[in-house]
């Protein structure tokens, strides 16, 4: 079976060796996660962690069939008990999040409930442990609720950690009950617990578990009830042998005063490392420092471990669409940060590059392993699924329409931002010799995968004109969207050409490809790989895409003084209510798209984040009058400037804050997003430091924008305890996903004035 490749060459759709479709065939090179730096002591030390970002508090190991622990609690709402377990994007819980987390063996979180405050702490200890991965302990402090005994112990045995026990200790009087369940996954656990509680309440009038278990139970839930402020310590010890005589000492070292001392020690170390990494203590007020610590704490505390198989679109019949038009990717694990624990608790490819710009400054080893995990998900054609939905828990938190991944669609290659940063870090001697050698070893193995990734982009997303590219995957037959979305760009509903076709030229993708080519050229030169076979001439491609004259010919609009997309476009498009006749004959009134003007090939007249990509990637010469135009656009209060940050779409755009369909509220059509503000701020900083007639102007705008962003995020955090997904374009209030400490955590790098170099 054969087919056309994106470059037009004939190549087999089936991999000859395995006779499986190429789209689900792994890339044939050694995995990055098999490097020795990720094995041995490193692997064991990172085995246990708070790797369940989708729940309010959870612990698991980095293995597919892990022992899993988590926290639930009951609250009364409208006279009925409500279970808290999986993070929810609602205001029922006032706020929650990590105040401190070091990404490895310590974290402290606060959860503000209606009538109480829960503080959960996690710490690992290798001292005295005989089991793989060591011992760990959890402390739960309960405050504002209406008193030295071991209450419960549970135990088991696993091949990885050996015999294990979990001990519950408290200085307070606690009432405990339990129930064992047999269930294939943990997604429905809250419902099972609530059913058991309801049944017991009907029998006895008491809201307590049944103190029973099903045959072959694989999940046990322990209910702890207390009537006042309480501190509960839960110690996990592993590698237990019958002749072990120090069990009590091990338990004591993980509970009570020894645990308090260990947590205080980790707290002090966290603050010291925060000061060392970001050097902010003398620059900012205490309220701002709290937000900075929450940013890095939540970013690190949001790192998760996932295992499963992605669903990949693969039509099984050319005649009809089917819900079964997908294949399963190979079983894979993913160690990654997540954008938002309640809303997006899974891996997103383009988000991850922004995450790692922050994380590598804290712990470069975590960054290398996460980037390695992502690159190991590459298939034989160099494609990486942009959204990773691995396992039942991840699947339970995503709308059905976003589960299946399309192999024609990409995502911005932001991981190259991180790799460029690491190379520049080596050049400026930011790393010690050991870390430098690990980065070089990583890049040496990663190069062949990065080369394949680049080739996938440069063939699959190429446009008609030389040096042009466009995001594939836009719906060119829809009558439901005002402007067909470009999910693969990461900017979703940002306005593009009204009528998608292959004539499109997307200025943001062109700039991403410039970054990719320039970064690959830098790696090739830095690593001395000029003598090996590579698929592309990176230097020539980077030179072509940085050609200022060619860029202006393709994308610059002199009337607007802005860079714009190009495509088949008309402004005369509206959403109107119409009576729609369905296949079964019934009528419904629906909002559909109507086109009143004939589309034509032209520049698309929407100014916003996309317009500033040549500025962000510093393609504009420092002495060009066009740079002056960009500074004017950025600082114009009638276009994208506000007192809270730069708007995603100009107020002058015909689609500013417009719904894209009946149920698609404006997303990238005005709201203030931190990742793009960070990139623009980074270039303002750059142009303010290089020689040129506009450096003073760039400095003034830089200082005011930086101040606006910090002040607004801190103000919102003071009011809500939350770092938000995006911020309102007129009032600056937090909106969208709560606890969005993915790229919104870049506010910490804005505070410390740490920006990527190009």
TrEMBL record:
Family assignment? Belongs to the glycosyl hydrolase 63 family.
Q: Which GO terms describe its biological process?
A: oligosaccharide metabolic process; protein N-linked glycosylation
**GO cellular component terms, A-Z:** endoplasmic reticulum membrane
Q: What does this protein do?
A: Cleaves the distal alpha 1,2-linked glucose residue from the Glc(3)Man(9)GlcNAc(2) oligosaccharide precursor.
Annotated Pfam families: Glyco_hydro_63, Glyco_hydro_63N
Instruction: Say which species the protein is native to.
Output: Arabidopsis thaliana
UniProt keyword list: Endoplasmic reticulum, Glycosidase, Hydrolase
InterPro entries hit by this protein: 6-hairpin_glycosidase_sf, 6hp_glycosidase-like_sf, Glyco_hydro_63_C, Glyco_hydro_63N, Glyco_hydro_63N_sf, Glycoside_hydrolase_63
Q: How does it sit in the membrane?
A: Single-pass type II membrane protein
Gene Ontology MF terms: Glc3Man9GlcNAc2 oligosaccharide glucosidase activity
Q: What is this protein called?
A: Mannosyl-oligosaccharide glucosidase
Where is this protein found? Endoplasmic reticulum membrane
Sequence segments annotated as region (Disordered): 1-26, 481-501
- This enzyme's EC code(s): 3.2.1.106
Gene3D superfamilies under this entry?
A: 1.50.10.10, Glycosyl hydrolase family 63, N-terminal domain
Outline the extent of the Glycosyl hydrolase family 63 C-terminal domain: 255-753
Please write the reaction equations for the catalytic activity of this protein.
Answer: N(4)-(alpha-D-Glc-(1->2)-alpha-D-Glc-(1->3)-alpha-D-Glc-(1->3)-alpha-D-Man-(1->2)-alpha-D-Man-(1->2)-alpha-D-Man-(1->3)-[alpha-D-Man-(1->2)-alpha-D-Man-(1->3)-[alpha-D-Man-(1->2)-alpha-D-Man-(1->6)]-alpha-D-Man-(1->6)]-beta-D-Man-(1->4)-beta-D-GlcNAc-(1->4)-beta-D-GlcNAc)-L-asparaginyl-[protein] + H2O = N(4)-(alpha-D-Glc-(1->3)-alpha-D-Glc-(1->3)-alpha-D-Man-(1->2)-alpha-D-Man-(1->2)-alpha-D-Man-(1->3)-[alpha-D-Man-(1->2)-alpha-D-Man-(1->3)-[alpha-D-Man-(1->2)-alpha-D-Man-(1->6)]-alpha-D-Man-(1->6)]-beta-D-Man-(1->4)-beta-D-GlcNAc-(1->4)-beta-D-GlcNAc)-L-asparaginyl-[protein] + beta-D-glucose
């Amino acid at each position: 079976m054969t087919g056309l490749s994106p470059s037009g060459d004939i190549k087999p759709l089936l991999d000859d060796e395995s006779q499986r479709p190429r789209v689900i065939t792994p890339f044939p090179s050694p995995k990055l996660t098999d490097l020795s730096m990720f094995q041995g002591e490193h692997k064991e030390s990172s085995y246990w962690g708070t790797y369940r970002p989708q729940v309010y508090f959870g612990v698991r190991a980095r293995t597919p069939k892990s022992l899993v622990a988590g926290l639930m609690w009951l609250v009364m709402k409208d006279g009925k008990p409500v279970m808290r377990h999986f993070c929810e994007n609602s205001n029922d819980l006032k706020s929650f999040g990590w105040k401190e987390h070091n990404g490895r063996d310590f974290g402290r979180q606060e959860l503000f409930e209606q009538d109480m405050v829960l503080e959960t702490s996690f710490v690992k200890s290798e001292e005295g442990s005989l089991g793989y991965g060591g011992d760990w302990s959890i402390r739960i402090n309960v405050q504002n609720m209406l008193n030295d005994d071991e209450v419960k112990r549970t135990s088991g045995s696993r091949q990885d950690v050996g015999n294990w026990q979990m001990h519950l200790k408290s200085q307070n009087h606690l009432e405990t009950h339990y129930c064992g369940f047999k269930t294939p996954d943990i997604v429905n656990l809250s419902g099972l617990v609530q059913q058991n509680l309801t049944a017991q309440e009907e029998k006895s009038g008491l809201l307590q578990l049944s103190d029973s278990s099903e045959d072959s139970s694989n999940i046990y839930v322990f209910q702890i009830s207390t009537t006042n402020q309480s501190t509960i310590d839960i110690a996990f010890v592993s590698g237990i042998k019958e002749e072990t005589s120090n069990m009590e000492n091990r338990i004591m070292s993980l509970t009570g005063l020894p645990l308090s001392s260990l947590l205080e020690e980790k707290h002090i170390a966290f603050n010291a490392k925060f000061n060392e990494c970001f050097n902010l203590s003398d620059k900012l007020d205490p309220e701002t420092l709290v937000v900075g610590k929450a940013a890095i704490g939540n970013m690190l505390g949001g790192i998760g471990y996932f295992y499963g198989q992605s669903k990949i679109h693969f039509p099984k019949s050319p005649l009809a669409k089917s819900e079964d038009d997908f294949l399963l990717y190979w079983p894979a694990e993913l160690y990654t940060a997540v954008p938002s624990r309640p809303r997006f608790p899974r891996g997103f490819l383009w988000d991850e590059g922004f995450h790692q710009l922050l994380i590598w400054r804290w712990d470069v080893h975590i960054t290398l392993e996460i980037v390695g995990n992502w690159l190991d998900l590459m298939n034989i054609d160099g494609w990486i699924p942009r959204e990773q939905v691995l396992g039942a828990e991840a699947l339970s938190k995503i709308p059905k329409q976003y589960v299946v991944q399309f192999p024609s669609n990409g995502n911005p290659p932001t991981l190259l931002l991180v790799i460029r940063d690491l190379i520049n870090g080596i050049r400026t001697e930011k790393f010690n010799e050991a870390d430098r050698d690990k980065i070089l070893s990583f890049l040496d193995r990663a190069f062949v995968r990065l080369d394949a990734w680049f080739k996938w982009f440069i063939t699959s997303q190429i446009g008609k004109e030389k040096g042009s590219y466009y995001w594939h995957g836009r719906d060119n037959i829809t009558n439901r969207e005002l402007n067909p979305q470009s999910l693969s760009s990461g900017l979703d509903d940002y306005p593009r050409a009204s009528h998608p076709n292959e004539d499109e030229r997307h200025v943001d993708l062109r700039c991403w490809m410039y970054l990719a080519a320039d970064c690959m050229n830098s790696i090739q030169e830095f690593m001395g790989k000029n003598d090996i076979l590579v698929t592309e001439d990176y230097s020539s491609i980077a030179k072509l895409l940085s050609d200022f004259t060619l860029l202006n010919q393709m994308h610059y609009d002199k009337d607007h003084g802005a860079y714009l997309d190009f495509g088949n476009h008309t402004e005369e498009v509206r959403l109107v209510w119409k009576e729609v006749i369905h296949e079964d004959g019934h009528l419904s009134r629906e909002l559909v798209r109507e086109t009143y003007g004939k589309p034509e090939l032209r520049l698309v007249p929407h100014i916003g984040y996309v317009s500033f990509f040549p500025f962000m990637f510093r393609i504009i010469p420092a002495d060009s009058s066009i740079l002056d135009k960009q500074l004017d656009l950025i600082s114009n209060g009638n276009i994208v400037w506000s007192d809270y940050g730069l708007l995603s779409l100009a107020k002058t755009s015909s689609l500013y804050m417009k719904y894209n369909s009946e149920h698609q509220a404006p997303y990238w059509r005005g709201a203030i997003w931190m990742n793009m503000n960070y990139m623009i701020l980074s270039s303002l900083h750059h142009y303010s430091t290089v020689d040129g007639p506009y450096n003073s102007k760039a400095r003034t705008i830089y200082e005011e924008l930086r101040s606006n962003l910090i002040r607004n995020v801190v103000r919102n955090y003071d009011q809500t305890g939350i770092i938000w997904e995006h911020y309102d374009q007129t009032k600056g209030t937090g909106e969208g996903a709560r606890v969005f400490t993915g790229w919104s955590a870049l506010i910490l790098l804005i505070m410390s004035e740490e920006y990527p170099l190009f």
